[in-house]
Amino acid sequence: MTFAEQMQAITAFMEAVSQWAIPALVLMIILTAAYKRVPMYESFVTGAKEGFGVAVMIIPYLVAIFFAIKVFIASGMFDDIKYGLTIAMNSIGLGAYTESLDLLPLAMTKPLTGSGARGIMLEIFHLHGPDSFLGKTASIMMGSSETTFYILTVYFGSVGVKKVRHTLIACLCADAAGMGTAVVLGYLMYHG
Amino acid sequence: MLNKIWFWLLCIGIIYGFCKASYQTRFPPPAPAVAPASSDASKKDAPPDDSALTAMGKRLNNAVLEATKSSIDICIPLIGIMALWLGLLNVAKDAGLIDVFARIVRPLMRWLFPEVPDGHPAQGAMLMNFAANMLGLDNAATPMGLKAMEDLQTLNPVKDTATNSMALFLAINCGSVTLIPFTIIGYRYASGSKDPSGIILGTLLASSASVVAGIAAARWLSRSPKYRVAMSDASEHAISAGEGGAAP
């Protein structure tokens, strides 16, 4: 068995584990509840009633943040930033690394919108191939970062917190570290 | 913070879009070679000279409509998912499972979140959110995360301001160690990759780095005077009254 085949076997196994995690959890909950003689149907309904309130509560926050983000992305500024940086890097003698600038729109879009970033990743797969340096690095970047603004909006919106203090910067630090590591690993493992 | 970001995203988006479109109208790009084949036909119908401004206006208008639509597209399915998981969690809570779970992981949570008292339900909810994120179970992760936020909010003295624990919880959530990125492996497979799972190790390393950076940044920034909690008048009065009463 080669290394790639081993990895594939592990992935297949882990996928099965992950698919069964929820059914197993449900079984464990209801068995324990039955043992403790909890009136579980009533208990479930009592908890589920809160679900509607939480989901509806986040709508105004989501509309506000999506409105700003979509308008910003529609202006096409990201493409122009990349174009400008390519010229800048070429002029200061870092021309060898301009290839990684194709990843810049992905890095800038991922914290703002998940679907937008997915589109950019698929475009990179289409143009350069999923097994190329860019394709693999883009995959790692997607896997190691989150749609920070969406998470912040939903999580804080659900409890009505409006002043987020240092949360946004800390989350963006986490994203930047993940993406930076992804690019470094990409150059080390897949380039050349 | 969010006020400023909101303003600048909209302001830059609209003004930059206008300037770019005006520039393109004045100096049209030499050859539309980048345009995809599908939209080519529709573009040829319009005169190329003054279409850039109109097209940009249309893009911005579509963006506004899309924003409202995607908010609702996210919220309506979330009602069902939230109801299901909050219901199950309530059964688990009544059966005493959450307490057992929280007890097992207490040392780790005590180190990460010193402000959350032992045995508080937030400990269990946060840990389940981390576990669901690691396994890539997004549908389960969000309800558990929102439950954790609700529990953390009960410990919050200033209800409209984030606590240190909330900031750290979200920073870990944004970094979230990914064991196996199933969705991305799926996309790689669909795009014809010969080695779709070859990115697992890299993703694990990069996401671990982002969690470490997130924890460090949240810890460090929480001590900065710039992000000190601005007490509202009411709670400030309450605190000074309490101090005054205790001093003599």
Describe the structure.
- The complex is a heterodimer of chains A (192) and B (248).
- Chain A is built from 9 helices and no strands.
- With 192 residues, chain A is mainly α.
- The model of chain A has no long low-confidence stretch (mean pLDDT 85).
- Chain B is 73% helix and 0% strand.
- The chains are: A mainly alpha (192), B mainly alpha (248).
- At the A-B interface, helix 1, helix 2, helix 3, helix 6 and helix 7 of A face helix 1, helix 3, helix 7, helix 8 and helix 9 of B.
Helix/strand layout:
The complex is a heterodimer of chains A (192) and B (248).
Chain A: H1 3-35, H2 40-57, H3 59-74, H4 77-91, H5 104-109, H6 114-128, H7 133-143, H8 148-159, H9 167-190
Helix pairs in contact in A: 3-8, 6-7, 7-9
Chain B: H1 2-26, H2 37-45, H3 51-94, H4 97-104, H5 106-112, H6 121-134, H7 138-153, H8 164-175, H9 182-190, H10 200-222, H11 233-246
Helix pairs in contact in B: 1-3, 3-7, 4-6, 6-7, 8-10
Question: What characteristics describe this protein?
Answer:
heterodimer, A: 192 residues, mainly alpha, 2 domains, 9 helices, 0% strand, flat, B: 248 residues
End-to-end span of chain A in angstroms?
Answer: 26 Å
Net shape of chain A: flat
Helical content of chain A (DSSP H or I, runs of 4+): over 70%
Q: What is the N-to-C order of secondary-structure elements of chain B (H for helix, E for strand)?
A: HHHHHHHHHHH
Q: Helix tally of chain A? A: 9
User: Low-confidence runs of chain B (pLDDT<50, min 5 residues)?
Assistant: 33-49, 232-248
End-to-end distance of chain B? 40 Å
Largest sheet of chain B: none
Write a brief caption for the model:
By secondary structure, chain A is mainly alpha-helical. Helix content of chain A is 78%, strand content 0%. Chain A is built from nine helices and no strands.
